Amino acid sequence: MEEQDLNSPGYEIPAEMQSAVAVTSLDRIYNWGRRASVWPMMFGLACCAIEMICTAASRFDLSRFGMEIMRPSPRQSDLMIVSGTVTKKMIPTIVRLYNQMPEPKYVLAMGACASGGGPFKEGYNVVSGVDKFVPVDVYVPGCPPTPQALLFGLMKIQEKITGQRWKDTRWYQKGADQVSIPVPLLGPDLFDPRKIPLFKNPKA
Predict the structure, then answer these.
(1) How far apart are CA 130 and CA 87, in angstroms?
(2) pLDDT per residue over 50-102, tens digit each?
């Protein structure tokens, strides 16, 4: 069959296509829009941030995935990329930024340090994984991970968004999960306010 120019004056839409109807679900349309316009938050903690910057540059180009807009404000972001070593001095700020992000929101732990402490795990000033304070959706291993590894992790975030039902997400439920995470207190050491019941009742 000879190919016709759709813009030519004599082109007619085939009869079998004139009554074509596209059927989909609200979840699919909603998730398609979200996965194609993820806005990461623009901040970095250590050497992994250099690899994150490379991923946004022209050689790897995050804009192919609809993620080229890195927002400087947590209130305009829906993806937190924790790139680098999480120190006890920094974790209160990270939790505060996470609480300020609107729902639905996601967290990607980039590198060995953010995922579990990395080579500094035994350090007195390092948190052994950001997941001890904020929920992590995807872990990207490496020290530091390459831009290709970060792109793979971002695609996993997109896969998670695609498979979600909006009625099952935390932001729709508006239950106990919706409460902000208490900001850790930094004194002589780091103190998690969520562990207060354990101190009051050690046998629990």
Answers:
(1) 9
(2) 999 898 888 888 888 888 888 889 999 999 999 999 999 999 999 999 999 98
In a domain, 142, yes or no: yes
State the total domains in the chain: 1
C-alpha distance from residue 164 to each of 143, 144, 185 (Å): 30, 30, 34
Provide the domain limits for residue 104.
Answer: 25-174
What would you measure as the largest C-alpha separation in the chain, in angstroms? 83
Residue 62: Cβ-neighbour burial (10 angstroms; 0-12, 13-18, 19+):
buried
* Domain CATH number, residue 71: 3.40.50.12280
Are 41 and 79 in contact by the 8 Å Cβ rule? The answer is: yes
User: Does residue 124 form part of some domain?
Assistant: yes
